[in-house]
Amino acid sequence: MKTGATKNQTTIGLVPKLRFPEFRDAEPWKPVSLGKASTPITERVGERKFTPVSISAGIGFVPQADKFGRDISGNQYQLYTLVSDGDFVYNKGNSLKFPQGCVYQLQGWGQVAAPNVFISFRLKDGYSDVFFQNCFEQNIHGKQLQKHITSGARSNGLLNISKEHFFGVEIPTPSPAEQQKIADCLSSLDEVIAAQGRKVEALKIHKKGLMQQLFPREGETQPRLRFPEFAEDWEEQSVENFGRVVTGSTPSTAQPAFYGGGIPFVSPADISDLRYVDQTKTTLTAGGFAETRHIRAGSTLFVCIGSTIGKVAQNIRDCATNQQINAVVPSSKHSDGFVYFALSFASERIALLAGKQAVPIINKSLFSSVRLLAPKLAEQQRIADCLSSLDALITAATQKLDTIKTHKQGLMQQLFPIVEDEQ
């Protein structure tokens, strides 16, 4: 069934699968253009001083100085748009999450200066900010804008989306009362997500502080916090004394038979903030694995090349890695867990050894020669056990956070009508 469909937009039913009881007999939702629901914002900042911002997909507003390392507004600053809390801004830049650009509402900033190539707008009375922001999170705008994008046509790195096309986007919209009911429901979930996110961050901060107590400070040979049965000084060792250092290698990509098996092939993109790596985007067959340098389970993987230099993880299963990763396969004199925590604790210091290069790199020789302090095996194991228990809490809390986010996504798919774009 098509209800209120435009030439290029198919709206299936314009009635969500899940509706609050008091609205089950209400009329179907109606498509409302952003041009009708909002007012464009065009006021320039001029000589007034505000923070120049950009927008990052999945994050929202960020100061230009944080995103680019400097303020890039330059001579264009006076032409920037004055955006206030409650206003929305559309960034035409594409990303993996939002290929046709992202929209975010400014909250908690007061007023900022947004690039005038972005499109800024404010919703009119009768349209819920939270309701519309959740529509933008589902990329309802992008599904309609994709037909207007000409491949390769960009201005300042941005997609060639005109204001006319953007404000022509139609959002399936119920009555103000139903908008608010949906907004309240999703806002309550957002509060749960934020609270769980704070719990994850608090655990990570606690772990970082504990590690600072469990490992000696620079120039010292004993930690500030120690298990009572240990008293000896720690000994300085090089990374290569911790175990065998292995630089990854990549099987020939011209051999399809090497890929698509069940053996993990780790790249920096597979390493997250969590400790363990198990599932990887690329996997190897037995034949492909035979072409690599094998890394046994429980080793420590350290990214030594590129923008993510210093990322650290442990592999759950036997694996191989690409050339951007040096692995330390611990000897029998060292605890697998301790080696991971020792390298994690020293990761920022080690990363600095790359210096300032176009492509930062710490070669195998330099990485192997890095000096670290370590106690005897028994104390290593006690430290690893202690910190591993915290890692388990962090992992569980992170998984719970992901579950709540997934629940919200599923709920949103039920609370909003299906909108498809005809190609």
Structural commentary:
This is Restriction endonuclease subunit R. Belongs to the type-I restriction system S methylase family. Keywords: DNA-binding, Endonuclease, Hydrolase, Nuclease, Restriction system. This protein has 423 residues and is an alpha+beta fold. The protein contains 12 helices and 24 strands. The chain folds into 3 domains: 118 residues, Bipartite methylase S protein (Helix Hairpins, Orthogonal Bundle); 142 residues, Alpha-Beta Complex (Adenine-n6-DNA-methyltransferase TaqI, Chain A, domain 2); 140 residues, DNA methylase specificity domains (Adenine-n6-DNA-methyltransferase TaqI, Chain A, domain 2), CATH 3.90.220.20. A 5-stranded mixed beta sheet has the order 15-22-19-20-17. The radius of gyration is 26 Å and the shape is elongated.
Number of alpha- plus pi-helical segments: 12
Q: Architecture of the largest domain, according to CATH?
A: Alpha-Beta Complex
In percent terms, what proportion of residues is strand? 15-25%
How far apart the termini lie comes to 18 Å
Low-confidence stretches: 1-12
Roughly how much helix do the residues carry, as a percent range?
A: 25-40%
What is the CATH homology-level superfamily of the largest domain? Answer: DNA methylase specificity domains
> Count of DSSP E strands?
24
Strand order of the largest sheet: 15-22-19-20-17
CATH class of the largest domain: Alpha Beta
